[in-house]
Amino acid sequence: MHEPLQFGQYYHIYNRGNNRENLFIEKRNYAYFLRLYARHILPVAETFAYCLLPNHFHFLIRTRTEEEQLEYLEIKQIGSVLKTEPIFKAKKPSRAFNNFFIAYARGFNNATDRTGVLFETPFRRKIITSDAYFYRLLAYIHMNPQKHGFVDDFRDWPWSSYRSLLSEKETRLERESVFEWLGGRDFFEAFHLEAVDESAMAGFIEKDFEDGFC
What we know:
Layout: E1 10-16, H1 27-40, E2 45-53, E3 56-63, H2 66-77, H3 93-112, E4 124-127, H4 131-147, H5 162-166, H6 175-182, H7 185-193, H8 207-210
Antiparallel strand pairs: 1-3, 1-4, 2-3
Helix pairs in contact: 1-3
């Protein structure tokens, strides 16, 4: 039984396709998934890293507090319709993620003439309990495409946050926070090039999730 996501907490969010089916078949599927993520999840969580692979995905997030949610939504409202009283209500993070997955599954099934459950349920989540956990998980997420043999060099995978974090372009990722935590851009890059100790990753993710990937 997975505990509901709490407000103001760091999490590793991950899941895979039901019966290990692919979640993404075409490039447009990845882009659509990220657009829906921005719509449903950005109001309830900050995002530090992500990686989308054909049949599974990973996110490193911090859920916003109830107050932070309201502040985020009110800022987004400014410039369109000004209100003199609060009109928003904080949303439970778990509900936002469920709505996100339902929306994607509906769109994906319609586009591929597919029926039935798309994701394993419930979606996986692990609370992040230390700085070391955060650092190692960040690298683990970005290196996943190389780990599973989709590319020879994880830096070449287009559907992760690695290149976006290093880019100078505007981003919705918490780029400055990541660099601040890791002591700067140079250390961020160097840290990712170190060999990842798989034993140090024990407990970051259920073993059954790692077994049997293509």
